[in-house]
Specification:
- The protein is an all-alpha fold.
- It has eleven helices and no strands.
- It starts with a helix and ends with a helix.
- The chain crosses the membrane at residues 12-30, 62-89, 110-127, 133-151, 184-210, 235-253.
- One of its GO terms (cellular component) is plasma membrane.
- Residues 63-253 form the ABC transmembrane type-1 domain.
Length: 263
Amino acid sequence: MMTRILAKGYLWLLLALLYSPILIIMIFSFTEAKVLGNWTGFSTKLYSSLFTGGMHHSLMSAIWNTFAIALIAATASTFLGSLAAIGIFNLRSRARQVMNFTNAIPMMNADIITGVSLFLLFVSFGISQGFTTVVLAHITFCTPYVVLSVMPRLKKMNQNVYEAALDLGATPFQALRKVIFPEILPGMISGFILAFTLSIDDFAVTIFTIGNEGLETLSTYIYADARKGGLTPELRPLSTIIFITVLVLLIVINKRAERSKKE
């Protein structure tokens, strides 16, 4: 009995340590005080400023860059990851195990190592760093997660359906488009959502590949803003909105996973 109480107490303490900072930010997003922790009364002025263009131009630019990069990277990595998953799935058993292990390495690897490696790669090829290199870097680290999301759908798929389509006169591309893609679509959607979320959240890889041309994403803007000794007040409602959005996306992913297990 005592062990169970201690275990639950430890769990609640851990959850409090993890989520109390986020809760504080959410609470103080409803006051217009410039300093976090200084409550000056309930107000939605920061939210109004966020949606009516009252923010700093650099912050607005960072938000647009972040979502543009995330959308492009998630779309490209979903396409590439889905094709890679199909290719890996159709390999022989030993080769498939090797490729699955290789695909898992970038996910287990530290982000800072990935960022440094990509930085050295771009420098060695003389590629000017900026928007393009950040997009390429995000595609690189997001694609393995898409592969991981699509692979279970391929394992559940009836392989005879694809072969039957070929026997009925469909070309491999037609069978891929009309048979395989509809079967793995839930995994592709989950992979896209995951890649989009990871891209928005990334800092370590971005900071090494963003260059010095003035390009900023939300993560690099917050880092630079914090180094100045404070945070822009509009970051509080923005962080709240992003947290709620990510939370909803995670709930959707988990619900889709539960539905897939039942099917």
